[in-house]
Structures are given as C-alpha cells and as structure tokens.
C-alpha cells in the first residue's frame, strides 16, 4: 500500500512512463518479427493491461491518463497480436 499523496502521485507517474514506453515499442514493431515467445508474453501482458483499464479511480487526476495510456497499449497489442487479444475478449 502506498501512503501519502506524493508517493501515490509518483506511483501513477512511473506507471504512465512505463505504459507510454511500452506503447511506443509495440507501435514500432513490425508484424514480420512475431515469434512464439512473444505471443506467450502478450498473453501474460494482457491481464495486466486490462487491470489498468478496469481499476479506474474516479476523481484522481492521473487515473484518466493511466487508463488512456493502457488503452493505447492494448490497441498496439491488438494490431500485431489480434488473435490473443480477441481470445481474451471472447473468454470474458
């Protein structure tokens, strides 16, 4: 558990940096370089990204940014790994 307003803000900002970096890496990836290990990593990454989207805290100033950034990562994942993303959606 994070205590203090400054600590919580720093946590949100660090998560935003990680999500933005991940989205940029995924957006620059070509479809030709997909491998089996990457598909497995995508399947492990999807629940974490969905967690960011679903744990939206109303009223927190960085929560909307965090959700938007996680949505951008999900979009980038679906561009190159649509089957894994669609499989997750269909099982829900």
Task: Report what the structure shows.
By secondary structure, the chain is mostly helical. The chain contains four helices and no strands. The longest helix is centred in the first third of the chain and has 23 residues, at 5-27. The chain is elongated, with a radius of gyration of 14 Å. The two termini are 29 Å apart. The model has no long low-confidence stretch (mean pLDDT 80).
Give the tags:
92 residues, mainly alpha, 4 helices, Neurofibromin 1
Topology diagram in text:
Elements: H1 5-27, H2 36-54, H3 63-80, H4 82-91
Instruction: Output the helix-strand order.
Output: HHHH
Q: Report the biggest beta sheet as strand number plus sense, adding barrel if it closes.
A: none
Mean pLDDT: 80
How many runs of DSSP E, i.e. beta strands?
Answer: 0
Helical segment tally?
4
